[in-house]
Amino acid sequence: SESINQRPPIQFFGRCNPNRGSGHSMVSRSLFPCLFLSHWHSKELGHRIIAAQYKFDIGLPNIIPSITQGLAGTITPLKSSPPNNKALFDFSIAGPLTGLATSIMLLVTGTQLTQIMSLDSSLPVLPVDLVRASSLGGGIVEYFLGKVAVLPNQGSNAFLELHPFAIAGFVGCLINALALLPLGHTDGGRVSLAMFGRRGAFVTKLFTTLLLTLAGLFGLDDMNILLAYVLYTLIWQRELEGPIRNEVDEIDFSRGLLGIIGAILVGLILIPML
Known about the structure:
It is built from nine helices and four strands. The chain is 58% helix and 6% strand. By secondary structure, the protein is mostly helical. The relative contact order is 0.17. A hairpin with a 3-residue loop joins β1 (62-66) and β2 (70-75). Mean pLDDT is 84; it is low at 1-28.
């Protein structure tokens, strides 16, 4: 319990516990930036494969900053219009789902590695409150490390040591889930546009903005992840994606089902643990 509850209030990105041995500190510090960017690279790879398949141009990703996580994600701009709603849907959902698959794999692998690390290992840490901000991510940590690792009401100075794989995977889950929220011309906004059309996407955006704002104001977002993201989208992501060449043809049933599965996955990641 000492390694979980009695932790100095330090930031979690690339930092290691100074009160433990330094046998793995250099490994942790060198691995972490590469691991943290791995889900971003996989997300961009998914985008670029689909863009090449449908033959439309995309630009370099724009970074979304975050006070809590350092990075709240990226938005890949469209430099030319996709041919139809199917292309827009495939492009928009391929990136985040690829990033989520990579992130979940890293999280599971990292929590398993955390179990077998020696006690003198110097590991990065995550605030317990941040771990509890995700039902799926926190549930995976709880499954492998036990309930004591993510007990509620431990206070803001409670930190949890995790292997760099696990931290990169956990943060990647949050970033890619945020990307799938149906707001503006983010990936989620584009998925919503392809599924529901412009009027439906606008209504979905308003409902999502209201829901996330209420969650932040009434204590369901202790780390202010959702509220900060909503504020960003209200300022810089107010408009829907520009017109595509064919907005009349609808997506098929399998794509609609995939969109629903993606929405459920986003809910599991962004709804906090009870």
